[in-house]
Amino acid sequence: MLSNPKISIITVVFNGNAVIERTIKSVLQQTHFNIEYIIIDGGSTDGTKDIIKNYQSKIAIIKSEKDNGIYDAMNKGLLLATGDYVLFLNAGDELFAADTLANVFSSSTNADVYYGNTAIASTSGKELGDRRLKPPTSLNWKSLKYGMCVSHQSFIARRTLCGFYNLDYSVSADIDWVINTLKQSSKIIYINSYISKFLEGGISNTRRSKALKERFSIMVKHYGILQTLWNHFFIGLRYPFHKLTYKSMT
What we know:
The chain is an alpha/beta fold. Helix content is about 30%, strand content about 25%. β2 (about 35-40), α2 (about 50-55) and β3 form a beta-alpha-beta unit.
């Protein structure tokens, strides 16, 4: 059993000068000190690299070069990671509080996956509300048949169980990755608290048509065509306004 697990936190960014600093600060303020922080920059030209450079003494690995998209960058991060666990926290996303990781690992130090709740934040950092799809208290790979019920940014997985992202999917490979990781996992623990703040309007929101097509293809691959068609019909009945991504806190 690991008494002080090492977690590799991987941030990928491209021209994110408006949001990258708050992501970095949320990692560096963690009271859990066994962190390997990795930043993969896609060759930013907007000053992002200068911001990262200000914190380079506290960042384990910084890699800046052109890539073939967000999931190619994430794969580069996985290749460099050496932690017991991995967490992807992209530019603009934040860990919820300074003691977030300490609380996660205090619950148990031998899980394959830890997952928890996610808040939505605006580009200015304001909390907008909860993610509309709440994580179930019991999670396995079949739980995602109705959609991404757990946020990528609130999903901490044992590194040795994680494969690489499938680059055939340019927008929704994270869903496929989470399902594949859960298939390899036995002990999956729900942390009944917030793990991350997710930046409103991610890649799948800005390219919604492409995202929906890829998600359908991923669901068919894992659950079969008949089950996927039925699940989409069920979702349409249960969530007629499913395009909304969060519930307001006001």
